Every structure is written in C-alpha cells, then in structure tokens.
Amino acid sequence: MTATLNEVRNLKLGSYWYKAEFTPEVTGMKDRLHNGDGTVGWLGDDTLSLHLAIEGDRHGRPLPNGQQIWQVWGRSADGREYVCLNWPVCDASLLRALAERDVRTRNMVQAIEEANRAVERENERKRKDQFDALADKAQWALRKDVGHLEGGTHKFTAVDGRRDEK
Prior knowledge:
With 166 residues, the protein is an alpha+beta fold. It is rod-shaped. It contains four helices and seven strands; from the N terminus they run ββααβββααββ. It folds into two domains: 7-101, no CATH class; 103-148. β4 and β5 (81-87) form a beta hairpin. The strands form three sheets. It has a three-stranded antiparallel sheet with strand order 3-4-5, covered by helices on one side. 5% of the residues are buried. The termini are far apart.
C-alpha cells in the first residue's frame, strides 16, 4: 500500500461493524500524537489516544447525516481516562490546538515572556535613571547660563555703571 492510498478499517460502533476509510493524514496521526510534531509546536504524549465519535440513533447505529467529531483521550497518573479535546477534523490543526492548550509548553512560553518583560523593565529603569541624571545636569547648566532671564536665583543688574547682585 502506498502513502497516497486511503486505508480502510472495520470499526465496531455499538454492536455493529462498519467500514471506515481513513486518509494518510489520519493514519499517521497516532505517531505524531505520541512522538510530537515540531512544525506545530506539539511535544507529544504517549498517554493520549485518538477516537472518532459518531452520532448514533438510540440503537447505536450511526445516523446518515450525524455529527462526527474527533476526540483526543488522555490517561491520568491514576489510570482514569478523560477527554482532552474535541475537534472537527483530524489534521495538523488538531495537534496545533493541543499544543496551544498544553501546560508544558504554555508555561515555558509564559516563563520566557515574563523573563523578557523583566529584562525590558530593568533596561527601561536604567535608561530612565541615566536620562534623569542628564536632565538634572542640563537643568542646572541652563539655570546657570540663562537663569537670570527666567527668574533664576541670582539676578544681575547694572546700577551706576557697575554690576550688583540682588
């Protein structure tokens, strides 16, 4: 069988067996789910499994136009199974959705972003301190040079041809 051919499997839904056709994207999903896929940022988790949920009637038979949803199931440390994600298609977007919700990667990204923000705050504080020191020096120099024009601490006036401080 080549990778371009679709794979046909028998599925048991309730007490009935059905033939289902899966695309190569779906058949390779188990490996990508367990081992990870760097192209979408998914690290992989071997406790996960992929299931196709099909809407059925009261006897468990699939409805002709019923909903189909892909479910990713996980297993907790104590062995209980739970649904991690419900997704409409089984492609790379499913892994991308898992990666966005993964606490392992979210915490890493969050930690990196917080560290970057702390560095930016520190750089901004240092820049502000340098700017304040220069501003104080510039203010002092301006008051010394032109302070008498703007109401500085000393005014020089000429009285009877000589300069007096007032």
